[in-house]
Amino acid sequence: MDLLRHLRYFVTVAEERHFGRAAERLHMAQPPLSQQIRRLEAELGVELLVRTTRRVDLTAAGAAYLERARAILASVDGAADEARRVAAGAVGHVAIGCVGSATYSLLPALSRRLADELPGVEFSFRGEMLVADQLDALREGTIDLALLRPPVADGSLTVTSLRKERLVVAVPSGHPLAARHRVRVADLARTDLIVHSAGRRSAMYDVVRRLFADAGEAPRIRHEVGETSTLVTLVAGGLGVAVVPEPVSALALAGVAYVPLVRPAASVELAVAHRTDRSEPHLLRTLEVLGELVGD
Which Pfam families does the UniProt record give (predicted)? Predict the structure, then answer.
């Protein structure tokens, strides 16, 4: 630190070309400042300044030293600023994986908010992820946060609930149910259903099966798909109806109507998960911004 202090003293004197003004700028007395510069010259073994009663000039060695001194101080100041920004969570990289409904409803607003509040953090997003794939990606470190559907039975992950989302039924616009103000699970018992794939371990597949079981009905599943966008596209094509979280209605496609599903239908939960051993400041700041957005 003594070297850095001497460098700052020297640069200030060199810029002011006057010990008195330099001392005033450094908030110190002139004699100690002059002594510090003398000590620096003695340590270097070269004369850096030519002193007169009125001003101070640089020697050729002093001019060369000034250029290097400024570069060193700028680098040190930049490193300190970078360290402070890292500690404040203002720089870094966060990869976020989203289930289908969050991809269309929450992700657009979240990406804008993150860009505004954390401009120094780089974000990447993976949409249309199934929960099982998100959990694998969290464990492997290919994503840092997951917007997913609980429950999550993994003690290595921290899961925080964000909100409850109502369930609605996506129906073709020409379907008789499209004219209804609400539907019950029983109304869907003899209707072709489009669901997320059981083979790919979809959380929504289990939700739909449980809804029908609780209502004492058997679902008539005709099509299984991997992505929410494909599911809604098939509904628009008239191939069946689908039970989806209400935010999926943000994926507005011509030919699709969304009708509320009444009891005994339950809402589904949206949560954010991350590895418990992850506590980087930029990751925590991202979680804060996400919580604020959902709470607005």
Answer: HTH_1, LysR_substrate
Cβ(261)–Cβ(243) below 8 Å = yes
Q: What are phi and psi for residue 224, nearest 5 degrees? A: -120, 135
* Amino acid (one-letter) located at 144: D
Tokens encoding 65:
């030293």
Phi-psi group of 89: left, alpha or beta (phi > 0 → left; psi -120 to 50 → alpha; rest → beta): left
- Cα(247)–Cα(166) distance, rounded to whole angstroms? 8
pTM of the model: 0.69
> How confident is the model over 111-148, as pLDDT tens digits?
999 988 888 889 999 988 888 899 999 999 999 999 99
In the block, residue with structure tokens 């003899």: 190
pLDDT digits (tens, 9 = 90+) for 142-187: 999 999 999 898 999 999 999 999 999 999 999 999 999 999 999 9
Closest among 232, 242, 243, 211 to 103, alpha carbons compared: 232
Does residue 85 carry a pLDDT above 80?
no
**φ, ψ at 151 (rounded to 5°):** -80, 155
In angstroms, the CA 243 to CA 246 distance is 9
Helices (H) and strands (E) in the chain, counts: 10, 12
Region 277-289 average pLDDT? 91
**Domains of the chain as residue ranges with CATH:** 2-87 (1.10.10.10), 92-164+269-295 (3.40.190.10), 167-266 (3.40.190.10)
- Max Cα–Cα distance, the chain, nearest Å: 102
